Amino acid sequence: MVVDLDPILHLPVGPAKTAALVAWVQGLFPAGREPVLVGGAAVELYTNGAQASDGLVFAGSVSPDVARVLDSAGFKRKGRHWVHRAVEVFVEFSSRVLGEGEVAGRLRVGSYEVATLSAEDVLADCLAAWKHWNSVVDGVNAWLLFRARREKLDGKRLQARVSALGAEDALRALMMLTRRLHDREVTQEEIKKWAQRGP
């Protein structure tokens, strides 16, 4: 049974709406075969909205049945993107499976439980994008994610994922910043300047 999308689309912007949208999309798929949330929306959920996302990106593909439901709900396909112009929501299916060594997990946000890439994998991806592509947004996201989840992260797994992506120096830079700041609150502008310098 497909849940009515309209009430979700009119929720205020934030992690509750994002989680509801993710759960709606994943609910279109058979249990155990739902696409896995990756990217910025995963950061948004892991950080409880410290960084907002402008769309949902999933590792997975769309069957003809799911395509029909998306279309009937007001989404229009543009390549691998599905755009709902009336409320400016876009959903991307990257048509890829999780990468070698990546794992999915379940994350509870309010009353929703959604399939996401593990926090260690999301953090490693952010650090790699910050290092290899000079992506300031990903450097900021790495800090926000680390700050929000550091007590729950599997340090050995994180190190292995970062090493696999060749981003060890980015992780070292993040750890140095953490030690330097200790528990001091920092502004978004300070973190952005730090990320602009690169690892």
Write the layout of secondary structure elements.
Layout: H1 6-9, H2 15-26, E1 36-38, H3 39-46, E2 56-59, H4 64-72, E3 76-78, E4 81-84, E5 89-93, E6 104-109, E7 112-117, H5 119-133, H6 136-149, H7 155-164, H8 168-181, H9 188-197
Helix pairs in contact: 3-5, 5-6, 5-7, 6-9
Describe this structure in words.
The protein has helices at residues 6-9, 15-26, 39-46, 64-72, 119-133, 136-149, 155-164, 168-181, 188-197, and strands spanning 36-38, 56-59, 76-78, 81-84, 89-93, 104-109, 112-117. It is α+β, with helices and mostly antiparallel strands. The chain has two domains: 6-117, no CATH class; 119-197, no CATH class. A five-stranded mixed sheet has the order 1-2-5-4-3. The protein has a two-stranded antiparallel sheet with strand order 6-7. Helix 5 (119-133) packs antiparallel against helix 6 (136-149) and helix 5 packs parallel to helix 7 (155-164). The longest helix is centred in the middle third of the chain and has 15 residues, at 119-133.
The topology string of helices and strands comes to HHEHEHEEEEEHHHHH
Distance between the termini: 47 Å
The count of strands amounts to 7
Shape: globular
What's the arrangement of strands in the largest beta sheet?
Answer: 1-2-5-4-3
What is the structural class? Answer: alpha+beta
- Count, helices: 9
